[in-house]
Amino acid sequence: MIKPLAIVEPRPSRLSTKLRCAIEQRVREGKTIADACADAGISPQGWHKAMKRPAVRDHLEGVQRRFVAEVEANRSLYKVQALQVALDLMLNAKSETVRARMAEFLAGDGKSPMVSVHVDARQGGGYEYRRPGQKVVEIEADPINPERE
């Protein structure tokens, strides 16, 4: 009698407890790879070497998926708690401004009011963004012809 071929599943890859701990800290606490590895007791080089293995990447993706699902599941609970705090502030805050803002917040179904900013560049004022380390050059009006800038 011929026996049917049994489907042999590959042996599950074993991940060290330290690597699992580093992955959890990286995903759930948002730590850098270096900090997660230091806390878990592995080297960053060990982390990167382990990430080359498909089983480790699959485990990392699984931890990420579970974390996102947990956060999404709690989202409605957090929204209800925020609305309760807003209601308490609207009813009990000593500041009239805070009570008014919470009334606007709750009337908007828990959405923050839109903020609009207008800057008229023709007036010579406005905002300027300067990157860290960037030099600032100030341009002064021409003393001979003040109309030109």
Brief overview, please?
With 149 residues, the protein is mainly α. It contains five helices and no strands.
Plain-language structure description:
The mean pLDDT is 82. This protein has a domain at 17-109. α1 crosses α2 (33-40). With 149 residues, it is an all-alpha fold. The chain starts with 16 loop residues before the first helix and ends in a 42-residue tail after the last helix. The protein has five helices and no strands. 52% of the residues lie in helices and 0% in strands. It has helices spanning 17-28, 33-40, 44-50, 54-92, 96-107. The chain is flat, with a radius of gyration of 29 Å.
**Strand segment tally:** 0
Number of helices in the DSSP assignment:
5
Please state the CA-atom Rg, rounded to the nearest Å. 29 Å
> What is the overall pLDDT average?
82
The arrangement of helices and strands along the chain is: HHHHH
pLDDT < 50 stretches = none
Proportion of residues in helical segments: 40-55%
Q: Which strand-content bin applies to the residues?
A: under 5%
Keywords:
149 residues, mainly alpha, 52% helix
SSE blueprint:
Elements: H1 17-28, H2 33-40, H3 44-50, H4 54-92, H5 96-107
Helix pairs in contact: 1-2, 1-4, 4-5
